């Protein structure tokens, strides 16, 4: 019996020790697991923190990417506008160069015409100078002026409008040069300042100047066969804005209308 009780006691103690050891091991395992859990919790917190930092970085990078895309789009748009503007400027420059080239051609044509016109004037001027001398000649505004005092053409009577016989040799020389150059137009301009006109036979100085000019034209036509279609008669008076000058001008115009039409045709475009 005692052996049984002893055995039972030994078994009980053994079981108690075993249970105690198991409990200790279990508690140690629990502590270990708790430590691991705390570690994992710390890692989880750190991971969440890193995740938030990463998300913030992602948002920042997304914003930067969006800005870059917008900037790139703006640059592309500006580049397209610049290219279009450059092309337009290049086109305008080409057009301007063509216009300048055409204007330069027109100016060359006009300059050549002016040179030709001046050459004709100088040649004709030289011919008249050889015929009648240079004292009564001048070139003004592209035309040749032969200036003859009224006393030379009509005598000392300031109211006379019939060409004096003494003046005809001079008119003959002028007519010879005119007939030798059929392209020259002629204007005979009378200028008078006679006083005490009676108002009947001669109304005023316009009347007298016109008759004197017509008389010269008539002599050139009738006596020396100058084509009347080339000639015009013009009368001025004491009211002329150029001042009083009792002379008759024979104005030689190398068909300025042709030159004018040439300039107009080249400038109208």
From TrEMBL:
- Limits of the OmpA-like domain: 141-258
This protein's source sits in the domain of life called Bacteria
- Does this UniProt record's set of keywords contain Signal? yes
Q: Which InterPro entries would you find in this protein's record?
A: Bact_OuterMem_StrucFunc, OmpA-like, OmpA-like_sf
Keyword terms, alphabetized: Coiled coil, Membrane, Signal
Q: Coiled-coil annotation: which residues?
A: 23-78
- Signal peptide boundaries: 1-20
Q: Does the keyword Coiled coil apply?
A: yes
A Pfam family the protein falls into: OmpA
Q: What is this protein called?
A: OmpA family protein
Per the UniProt record, the source organism is Aquimarina litoralis
């Amino acid at each position: 019996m005692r052996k049984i009780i002893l055995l039972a006691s030994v078994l009980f103690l053994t079981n108690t020790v075993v249970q105690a050891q198991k409990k200790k091991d279990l508690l140690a395992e629990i502590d270990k697991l708790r430590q691991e859990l705390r570690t994992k919790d710390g890692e989880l917190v750190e991971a969440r923190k890193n995740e938030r930092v990463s998300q913030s970085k992602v948002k920042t990078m997304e914003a930067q990417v969006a800005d870059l895309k917008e900037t790139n789009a703006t640059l592309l748009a500006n580049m397209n506008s610049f290219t279009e503007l450059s092309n337009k400027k290049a086109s305008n420059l080409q057009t301007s160069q063509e216009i300048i080239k055409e204007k330069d051609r027109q100016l060359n044509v006009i300059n050549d015409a002016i040179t030709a016109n001046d050459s004709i004037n100088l040649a004709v001027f030289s011919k008249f100078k050889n015929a009648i001398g240079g004292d009564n000649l001048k070139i003004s505004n592209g035309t040749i002026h032969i200036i003859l005092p009224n006393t030379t053409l009509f005598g000392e009577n300031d109211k006379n409008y019939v060409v004096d016989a003494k003046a005809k040799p001079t008119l003959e020389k002028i007519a010879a040069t005119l007939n030798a150059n059929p392209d020259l137009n002629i204007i005979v301009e009378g200028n008078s300042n006679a006083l005490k006109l009676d108002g009947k036979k001669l109304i005023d100085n316009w009347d007298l100047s016109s008759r004197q000019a017509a008389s010269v034209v008539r002599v050139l036509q009738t006596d020396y066969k100058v084509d009347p279609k080339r000639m015009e008669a013009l009368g001025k008076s004491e009211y002329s804005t150029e001042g009083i000058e009792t002379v008759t001008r024979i104005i030689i115009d190398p068909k300025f209308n042709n030159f004018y039409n040439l300039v107009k045709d080249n400038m109208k475009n």
